[in-house]
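Hi L.,

You mentioned the student needs an example of a multi-chain input paired with its predicted structure. This one should do, with 1193 residues in total across all chains.
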Amino acid sequence: MPAGFTAADFYYLLPELLLTGGALLVLVVDLLFPRREEATLGMTLLTLAVTGAAVVGFTGVDTTISAGLLAVDGFATFFKVIVIVSALLTVLMSPSYLRVEAVRAGEYYFLILCATLGMLFMASGIDLITLFIGLETMAISFYILAGYLKPNQRSNEASVKYFLLGAFSLGILLYGMSLFYGATGTTSLGGMAEALAGGERSLMLSLALVLLVAGMGFKIAAVPFHMWAPDVYEGAPTPVTAYLSVGSKAASFAMILRIFIEGLPSLVADWQLLFWVLAAVTMTVGNIAAITQSNIKRMLAYSSIAHAGYILIGVVAATERGVAAALVYLWVYVFMQLGAFAVVAMLRRQDVIGDELKDLSGLYLRKPFAAVAMLIFMLSLGGIPPTAGFMGKLWLFGAAIESGFVWLAVIFVVNSVISLYYYYRVIVFMWLKDETAGSDIVISPAMATALVIAVVGSLLFGVYPQVLFDHAQIAADMFGSAVSTAALR
Amino acid sequence: MESIWLIPLLPGIGAAINGLVGIRFFGKRLAGVLASFMMGWALWLSLVAFWELLGDEDRFHQVTVASWIPPIPLDTVDGIGSFSVDWSFTLDPLSAMMLLIVTGIGFLIHIYSIGYIEHEPRGGVARFFCYLNLFCFFMLTLVLGSNFLVMFVGWEGVGLCSYLLIGYWYQKKSASDAGKKAFIVNRIGDWGFVLGVFLVFFTFGTLDFRAVAEAASHMPVETAAVGFGVISAICLFLFIGATGKSAQIPLYVWLPDAMEGPTPVSALIHAATMVTAGVYMVCRNAVLFTHAPMVMEVVAIVGVLTALVAATIGLVQTDIKRVLAYSTVSQLGYMFLATGVGAFGAAAFHLMTHAFFKALLFLGSGSVIHGMNEEQDMRRMGGLRQYMPVTALTMAIGAVAIAGIPPFSGFFSKDEILFRTYLHHGVFVPDKVLWGLGVVTAMLTAFYMFRLINMTFFGAYRGPAWGHGAEDHGHDEDGHGHAWHGPHESPRWMTIPLVVLAVGAMLAGFVGVPIAFEAVWPWTATIEHFLHPSFVAEGAHAAEEAHHMSLLGELGLMAFSVLIALGGIWFAYRNYVERPEAAERLAESLAGPHRVLTNKYYVDELYDATVVRGTMGSAGGLWTVDRQVVDGAVNGTGWTTIAASWVSHVLDKYVVDGLVNLTAWLCGEASYAFRRAQTGLIQNYAFVTLLGVFAFVTWFLVAR
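Structure written out for the whole complex:
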């Protein structure tokens, strides 16, 4: 047993261990039954289900393990559930898509699980090194996944772009982290907070803070660190894009909340200001750029950028309510964003790429269920009651008002209105335009399951949000001490 | 009473089942029976809840199911308040009465619909029952909601269902247009309602009806001397909402067009329940309104004018359903008149009796239309009484009730309204003017109602002929297939609800017998006493307003209004039964007014010329902006692509022209350039990222 580890550590690492074992088994199953894709799919789903059960089993636990490298608390559990649910939905929308693209599924599912593993560590890491390793595990899996359609030039391009820019931004992030290590002599978030408490703000700390914000800003695709997102989203296989825009974003937000609120409470005034600007610019640029897009995936990419801006409001608020609002929003975002991408993935057929807005034309006549589902996702993304998106926006709005960021709330509301334009355009295409050519759209059972889950999630948390609120509140409670320090400034 | 939240949910579940599974898999009968069963169940629960409420000392019960909107700090007049809303439902006398109306009449109409809708295709039947159940879900939410926002959910939901059901035959352009008209006109009203709700929160810091009433009861009454204050503003906004939903001037235009929907829909939504939501809402906020007497006066004026205008239009309509539609608008006007003069109990009472007789009349007209093979024009009916006796008898009962002949239900409620109006002292309007207009309307009502009855059921048959083939015998059960075998009575699914409603229309009035009859009927004004707690703030059990009127005077007023009604009936009988040609001569001699009335005072044309054209014009302007600016950006991208392809086209030409040596070099260069552009892009991206970092660092170092 490694030094400093105990048997309890392995017990609390059960979800991660199960996921790792399951991922390896997926490879084995793929080798044993190379022609039976459903075996691989089944193994993947089983792995995710078991991992999910293990994660949920740790509800209510609040402890630190592995010599202070990882935390198993409400916050981590909340994010792990988000990540696993989004992985599940991604996997469900994949088989029919992969079949049309005629690529082998084995390593694909393995890589999805690896990315998920990285995200789990990002959710529970409380040390810069652990967080960084989680981030890298996730990022490298995504570099490969983005280029998974080997004969497809767009996919290759996406992969290379993502890899190069990702490496570049990781450099920036690491630079920031190492400066903090230099300033505090520790990589543990708690240690950093102690070392920085009451100290003077120095040039090095300012620089380190900016670099850290920039590095994390890249991961959540915040303007001006967002340039990679539209190209990569457009080129990557649609389910990968979906997972990238939801899972990766959620895990990165977990990391941001951990690092800044738990590790750098004494610099709160500085990073609040940085994130304020970042949030305002991100949502505005994202929404305005989305208006003119004619490609759904690019449109959703810009919309996803805008949503990152919204969620940053929760970070800016830096209160318990702010954290809870970010958690609530990320949770409802899982359903509406993955649902929208599932519909786009469904449109991919032998003769139709299906990612242009006009490919949605007359969808209501062809597949009324899918069109109604897409309608619900668009309304939810736009924040129209009674969908879940409305509840998420309401929480963020409340958090901004409570912390006194009224102007940010105003920018937020104006942006929400702008965004309705391009969400409604999708609805216009589905209902009011004539059908376009192309072979029949087939909804596989797995895809139908994904759509149903996404629809139920997008509606349920809009009318009955109590459960979600309670859990988000519990998850945000762990920041109680840090937040009160922040409030003191 | 703990399970009152189940009452709306049951039809909601029915709608979900019919909508998700039924449209594809259910047979016609199954869809109808399922929907009716859910309504029957809801009716049973409502009866139980009503019974329990009678045994409850407080006559108030609130159930909170879950929290809905989390506490959010929002500005109010007393500083930052906490905006939070629960899914909570209230059972009190007013909502209990509405509950019984909606579930009771709703259940009957569901049963009736099983017979009415059976000629539709299979999926269409399930769709119809899905919408109908969904409507009941939202209507019950509206009724039971214990705060403005839950009520608003129902309010919007019934609007949606109304739109869906008016446009049920969506292939018919007039039907889908009517649906849109209803939806859009209602949005105007909802704008007012929403503003009212905002103002309520800003003023009181809560949206709960009871808390608002409690708070408002401690505020001064905003009489003309005090001035037009915040409560008046709230009430005015809320009333704008009510004019949309309850089809009052100036927003009544959608209701007559809404008759494009199937007749059971007209009966349930556009007569008995949804259109009374505005009246219900005003009654629900009785405490607020009593604190804004000037707005009350506006309500009364709008109500009585609507009643009069709609009644005059109803005089000349020839479509059987349109007569009833204008009659509904007119009767709703009566209800608003009642609320306007402070007689909330009378308004609710009339709402209840009206639900019975108007649902009866609509269902009866549906039965006529069904038996006449979709004929709606009364000029092509006549003498139908011998073909459809049950329908004729029940409709006649309905007509007597609405005309206000004792002891039928309409007499008691309408007379109560007129009596209270007679006693009312207005703020701006001279006394007795409102009453006078109300009495004139009562006479017109009796006239147009019996004009309808006479044209439809009496006189000679004027409709199309039908074949008297020998094979007619033995086709009694389905005499209305593709071949029409003449007017006939409707199936039992339809006549039984008619009979039940007729009994209701006859007897419902006895819960509100005027106090003047105390000597002969000991249970007077039962419903007013029952409803009273809903109209006052908690704990403020002020003595009921004394009725300053001698017994003789009250009886005299009653006799007068009965005489007026009898006069209207007699005039209709003379013109449409005794001497049918007299009506035409009358129309000719009054050609000018007749034309104005037939064209409904040209209000639709007026709205079209002003509001619709204006909106279209500004939308056109915005569309131009959209085309120029937004599409310009899109097209700009397109142009770049085209330009690029033109360049490559020129290069291509060179290649074709045989500059072989250059080809390889150019291709290589182009490919290289392309590749370089790609890497350049990534560098650009990285450059932007760095620029961002530098900007932030500079800002931090220099500016702070």
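You could point out the following to them. The first helix of chain B runs from residue 6 to 25. The interface with chain A takes residues 66-74, 87, 153, 630, 633-634, 637, 678, 681-682, 684-686, 688-689, 691-693, 695-697, 700-701 of chain B (CB under 8 Å).

Best wishes,
N.
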